[in-house]
Amino acid sequence: MDSETKLFGMPAEKGRWILVVLGFIINLCLGSVYAYSVFKVPVQNMFKIGAFDGGLPFMFFIAFFAGIFPFSGRLLEKIGPKKLGILGGAIVGLGWILSGIIPGMAPNIWTLVITYGVIAGAGVGLSYSGPIQVATRWFPDKKGLAVGLTVAGFGGSPFISAYIASNLINSVGILNTFLYMGIAFLAIVILLALPLKFPVAGWKPAGWSPKAGAATAGADYNSSEMAKTSSFWGLFICFIIGSLAGLMAIGISSPVATGIIKLDTATAAVLVSVFAIFNGGGRPLFGWITDKITPRYAAVISFIIIIMASIGMMFAGPGTAALYIICFAGFWLCLGGWLAIAPTSTVTFFGVKFNGRNYGIMLLAYGIGVILANFISGFANDLFGSYLRAFIPVGILAFIGIFVAFFMMKSPKKA
User: Fold this and answer.
1) Distance between CA 42 and CA 158 in Å, rounded?
2) What mean pLDDT comes out for the span 267-276?
3) 3-state class of 290 per DSSP?
4) pLDDT digits (tens, 9 = 90+) for 225-248
């Protein structure tokens, strides 16, 4: 039966890769939030606000993205990835489009928080789960790689979207930029969600059987059972730390480049695009590492990189562009890494059956990470006049994360 399953007119073992491509492109649209540092200074100038307030739309976007994810996982089980993708795509597009209209009528940062942060963020929370779960179920033999490639679009999005947004802001203004990008996202996400579907229960590639010791799915835990294990809390804590470091870097990449390293805005926008390559590449890379050496050691590697990057930023200043590029590339790489480590670890530790809702709960760590990131970076800059102080707590948390990962990130024993 496995060999007879067809996708796009091809044997499923080949056709399933098209689903990865579709998920990648959908995530290119959803991940445009990672280009927010290009928007941040124009937003601050438009509303005449400080760094913390300027980061609120980004903070709310990620928080609502992560906060709605548990609901998204349950809804996915009921209506499937196609219908959920259409619904999410419509809400994403609406949020961006309204961000180009409402703040112009009522010029207050909270109007942008509602349209961009709440509405668009919630739409991404609905849209994001479908492609991940499609990849997980069609690739039981290559979960880490398939999920990593699918979500690489999310991380790599600023490579395209930061460049587009920067040029649009300069030519048509920030509000029209939100509007035009929203129209594009509305059309693309809905169109590409149409072919998404799950395999029949128990499908596996012809001739494939799980190998002993591989990072394959374990016993099935429901959400309540999962939350009672130390493995869940170890992964949850590590996900907070890993996402906090990367999300903080994403939110301040452009301001640090222009304000501390003294680069011009055009160069800063180009570097955001460059960093996006590392963010996107970190997903298949750490997905592959997780498959090969277990989630625990993949997490430890990421925390070592974050510590080194945090220490490096203590020496940053005017004229240290190379140091800045290396350190921020490391932060972006590890954020991408955690968005492969976390979903792969969740299905490996807690099984496939309840994975949609289980990863929905796990992604709450990502939302907590962005809230902490905005507080740390915003207050560091507003209180001390520099973002550099923010890297001290980030490095300390990564050091703690090594020990949490080593002792708690392991497959639980089900009675």
Assistant:
1) 17
2) 86
3) helix
4) 999 999 999 999 999 999 999 989
Whether residue 97 contacts residue 178, with contact meaning beta carbons closer than 8 Å, is answered with yes
Residue ranges of the alpha helices (H) in 314-362? 321-350, 355-362
Give the Cα separation of 54 and 52 in Å (integer).
5
Question: By 3-state DSSP, what share of the chain in percent is helix, strand and coil, each rounded to 5?
Answer: 80, 0, 20
| 375, two tokens | 């507080």
For residue 60, give both structure tokens. 């709310």
| pTM of this structure | 0.78
Secondary structure element (H or E) that encloses residue 8, with its range: none
pLDDT range class, residue 20, cuts 50, 70, 90: very high
Between these two residues, 38 and 330, which has the higher pLDDT value?
A: 330
Distances from the Cα of 57 to the Cα of 60, 300, 304, angstroms: 5, 31, 30
Residue 11 φ then ψ, to 5°: -55, 140
Cα–Cα distance between 384 and 390 in angstroms, integer? 10
Q: How far apart are CA 380 and CA 390, in angstroms?
A: 6
Between 334 and 159, where is the model more confident?
Answer: 334
DSSP class per residue in 110-135 = HHHIIIIIIIIHHHHHHHHHHHHHHH
Asked if 143 and 136 touch (Cβ cutoff 8 Å), the reply is yes
The predicted structure's pLDDT at residue 213: 47
- The predicted structure's pLDDT at residue 306: 97
In the chain the domains, ranked by start, together with CATH numbers, are: 10-201+215-408 (1.20.1250.20)
Query: Which phi-psi region, left, alpha or beta, contains residue 88 (left: φ > 0; alpha: ψ -120 to 50)?
Result: alpha
**Assigned token pair, 91:** 């809400």
